[in-house]
Design brief:
Blueprint: E1 2-3, H1 4-9, H2 13-19, H3 25-36, H4 50-59, E2 60-61, E3 66-72, E4 78-83, E5 89-97, E6 100-104, E7 108-110, E8 125-128, H5 131-142, E9 153-156, H6 166-177, E10 189-193, H7 197-206, E11 211-215, H8 221-227, H9 236-250, E12 254-260, H10 268-278, E13 283-289, H11 303-315, E14 319-322, H12 336-340
Parallel strand pairs: 1-2, 6-9, 9-10, 10-11, 11-12, 12-13, 13-14
Antiparallel strand pairs: 3-4, 4-5, 5-6, 7-8
The structure holds S-adenosyl-L-homocysteine (SAH).
Length: 353
């Protein structure tokens, strides 16, 4: 079977169509049906001759994945538990907020970074997603929109560490940002990373224009290594240097994410250190009050502790946004959908407009 979405992201559809003995314009038609006209089957491709549709159905498939579960929350958030061809499961989410139609997608099955509070990494990483599997999440979520509505934003904040799979991620994001793809401007596409300097350097070299969000979670290396174990061999300074360099090249204001964990990283001294660290950087601090994961010992700070944290940073002139949860009733927050059936996500205030 030839996997068409994978062929599309790898720019190999022209060759496939040729091998099937078809003229080149058929590749353009197929791509339009799959990427823009949101069809689910060859039968719906009405400008292709019936014989060709039958031939395609025999030798090619549009999807390599199936939807294991589809959940909708009262606020309009929809979540898909996606089953991969090898039985692996990932999740992705569509968020509706005013005119925004934001999707959150996964980059790996599981995660190797080991952040102590996060559900996605509890069982380590199984494997990287292919470019096609990343693109399929976008197309599947796009199909949930009525005709006439378009996806406006993408955040790569689902399961996995996107920069640990950057070579497969970028072709999928290219499809998302291409005019003849999903047409979502690069500044509306956010890559959220634990902070892997060589991969951030690669983004700078490739001159990608995506928005970068760095998950900091602590203002000093000692604490960060406790919360984000992979920090041990990296260190905050190297991440900040790589992120500053990316800003220089891309001109995209950086976002730093900070999951607020009661008593662990929400103390006034943490806020003061963080203010010092971020001062002078054209950056936004996105604070995410912890979204509890069943079985983990961490707690969401009280409203007073959250306010205290915010006040100190704002008094130091740091731009702070608190990200409030959406879709938490359907566990659309960070690795939780998969865990419940073995399931999670957090959106999205303060993300680029
Ligand atoms: N690996 C990437 C993407 C992960 S998820 C990264 O580390 O950025 C996106 C964001 O959600 C990260 O900042 C992550 O730390 C945060 N997150 C994960 N689990 C969470 C939870 N239970 N509550 C709140 N935020 C969480």
């Amino acid at each position: 079977m030839i996997d068409l979405v994978e062929q599309i992201v790898r720019h190999q559809l022209d060759d496939t169509v040729k091998e099937l003995g078809q003229p080149k314009f058929r590749a353009k038609q197929l791509r339009e049906w799959i990427v823009q006209k949101r069809v689910d089957s060859f039968d719906e491709m009405t400008n292709l001759p019936k014989a060709l549709r039958e031939k395609l159905a025999e030798s090619c498939r549009i999807w390599t994945t199936t939807i294991a579960k589809h959940t909708t929350a009262d606020d309009g958030t929809e979540k898909l538990l996606v089953q991969l061809h090898d039985g692996g499961r990932i999740e992705c989410v569509l968020l509706r907020d005013g005119d925004r139609r934001t999707i959150c997608i996964s980059s790996q099955v599981g995660c190797a970074m080991g952040c102590v509070f996060c559900a996605s990494g509890l069982d380590g990483v199984d494997r990287n997603l292919t470019s096609g599997e990343i693109a399929e999440q976008m197309l599947r979520l796009q199909m949930l929109l009525p005709v006439g509505e378009r996806l406006s934003h993408i955040v790569v904040m689902g399961m996995g560490e996107p920069l640990a799979n950057v070579d497969r991620l970028l072709p999928a994001l290219d499809l998302a940002s291409a005019e003849d793809g999903l047409g979502i401007s690069a500044r509306r596409i956010t890559i959220s990373t634990v902070g892997l300097p060589p991969a951030i350097d690669k983004l700078s070299k490739l001159d990608t224009r995506y928005h970068l969000a760095v998950s900091l979670h602590a203002p000093n290396d000692e604490l960060r290594t406790k919360i984000v174990p992979v920090n041990k061999t990296i260190g905050i300074q190297k991440i900040l240097d790589a992120a500053d360099q990316y800003f220089e090249v891309s001109g995209r204001r950086l976002t730093f994410e900070y999951v607020l964990l009661s008593e662990l990283n929400d103390r006034p001294e943490h806020a003061q250190q963080l203010a010092k660290l971020l001062k002078g950087r054209p950056a936004l601090l996105n604070v995410i009050p912890y979204n509890p994961v069943p079985g983990l010992p961490y707690e969401t700070p009280t409203v007073q502790a959250q306010q205290r944290f915010r006040d100190i940073l704002e008094n130091h002139g740091i731009t702070v946004k608190f990200r409030h949860r959406k879709g938490d009733k359907i566990n659309a927050a960070c690795g939780q959908l998969r865990r419940l059936s073995k399931e999670n996500l957090v959106p999205l205030e303060g993300m680029p407009s």
